Amino acid sequence: MPDREVDVDPHRKHPVDEKLPPARMFTSGLQHVAAMYAGVVAPPMIVGPALGLAPEETAFLMGASLFTAGIATLLQTLGFWRIGARLPFVNGVSFAGVTPMIAIGKDRGADGLAVIFGAILVASVLGFLLTPYFSKLVRFFPPVVTGTVITLIGVSLLPVAFTWSQGGDTTAGDYGSTRNIGMAALTLVIVLVLRKLLRGFLQQIAILIGLVIGTAIAVPMGMTGFDAIKGAGLVGFPTPFHFGAPQFEIAAIISMCLVMLVCMTESTADMLALGRIVGRPADERTIEGGLRADTLGSALSPLFNGFMCSAFAQNIGLVAMTKVRSRFVVATGGGILVLLGLCPVLASVIALVPLPVLGGAGIVLFGSVAASGIQTLATAALERGENALIVAAAVGVGLIPIAAPDFYHAFPKDLLVVLDSGISTGCVVAIVLNLAFNHLGASRSSEERRAEAEPVAPVASARTVT
């Protein structure tokens, strides 16, 4: 299916392919890094101690994750051959793999990591080979499905922002304190005021400015410090196979293959969401290229001691909010991530942002994703047939892991990889019900079913933002 764009001037570049001035490119890219930084370093921060690694080894994993996230993002945005979605699509360490990775390597130290890396390598190669077939599922993602999934992406991310707003560490004495929540609320207000008062480029980087102001306020309050900068080295290349050569165990490989399928499902939904937001709907070829970049980035990650990579939905919210759609901006962010992975002292500067400050900004970012999903649902002909029922059931099932986190506690651990992801379960329910009601039913005409399944025009204008 050809890209459906809104530009009326055929000689004008699509905003996705525009290159901004260097200063704007850097600051906008840095804003993407700030939005995703905590999400990238959180999995190694969780997995490292669970495997019994020393603090310096966990820090090494964090640097490696930043480095490999940058490589995966560059593959997505710039691409080569048939690899890369060539959209402002950010990649980083997937949270879907945290629980199975802990189960695989718990208390096994470096040996556990070697098994994890071997399983990720095999799962990624198999995923790469599977992409031409998996991408054909795009025709099963009409607006009633994509709108539901986009909404679930935003709603599923909001609890992350709420946790950050409370302080991030549930075991800390000040978790949920009025100081933490007050700082999150102040940052939220600052971002909203900046968005209202600023114009042009400054309005586009309101999130970044809000994070800087929030951090500056947090320093005298003792909510952040500079100890991490003092102890950080200037250069720290993630040595290949630092924890030993990959080891291959069947059970671990099967577990990570399930994680890969979950990541591919979520990435497909994220590409469809991003395509609508930037005014360049993701067709089958785009999704195939994006999934190839996902799986290739994931295959390269274990070589440099990183974990499985997938889409970062929070950055889709940033694109929706700022209207900066250039993929080269996100590629610049990918370059910054690589530098952070190579220079620990730079990474520690970004780490100065307290989680409550990041949480306040995250409420706006993640809420923007949900708003985009609702906007897509408004075009999904909910008054026709059983479309409203499809949305109701899919959203209801997708909200289970959010509203009742222990709902599936009695199920096998391998199934929890899928069931604990509201995005994945909601997506599967929406696809199955759409097939049952809009494709397999004989009670409605083929013209009516085609009308319901036909993708709509992009929700975002493709005009250049000034």
Which features does this protein show?
466 residues, mainly alpha, two-stranded antiparallel ribbon, 20 helices, 1% strand, disordered N terminus, disordered C terminus
List the helices and strands and how they pair.
Blueprint: H1 22-50, H2 55-77, E1 91-93, H3 98-105, H4 109-134, H5 143-166, H6 178-197, H7 200-204, H8 206-218, H9 227-231, H10 250-278, H11 284-300, E2 309-311, H12 313-322, H13 327-342, H14 344-350, H15 355-377, H16 387-398, H17 400-403, H18 413-419, H19 422-438, H20 446-453
Antiparallel strand pairs: 1-2
Structure description:
The chain has 466 residues and is mainly alpha-helical. It has 20 helices and 2 strands. It has helices at 22-50, 55-77, 98-105, 109-134, 143-166, 178-197, 200-204, 206-218, 227-231, 250-278, 284-300, 313-322, 327-342, 344-350, 355-377, 387-398, 400-403, 413-419, 422-438, 446-453, and strands at 91-93, 309-311. The chain has a two-stranded antiparallel ribbon with strand order 1-2. The longest helix is centred in the first third of the chain and has 29 residues, at 22-50. The two termini are 30 Å apart.
At a glance:
The chain is mainly α.
The SSE order reads HHEHHHHHHHHHEHHHHHHHHH
**Number of E-state strands:** 2
Silhouette: globular
Q: How far apart are the first and last residues' alpha carbons, in Å? A: 30 Å
Strand order of the main beta sheet, please?
Answer: 1-2
Low-confidence stretches: 1-8, 445-449, 451-466
Tell me the Rg in angstroms: 21 Å
Most strands sheet: 2 strands, antiparallel
- Percent helix, as a range, is 55-70%
What is the mean pLDDT?
80
* Global structural class: mainly alpha
Strand content: under 5%
Give the number of helices: 20
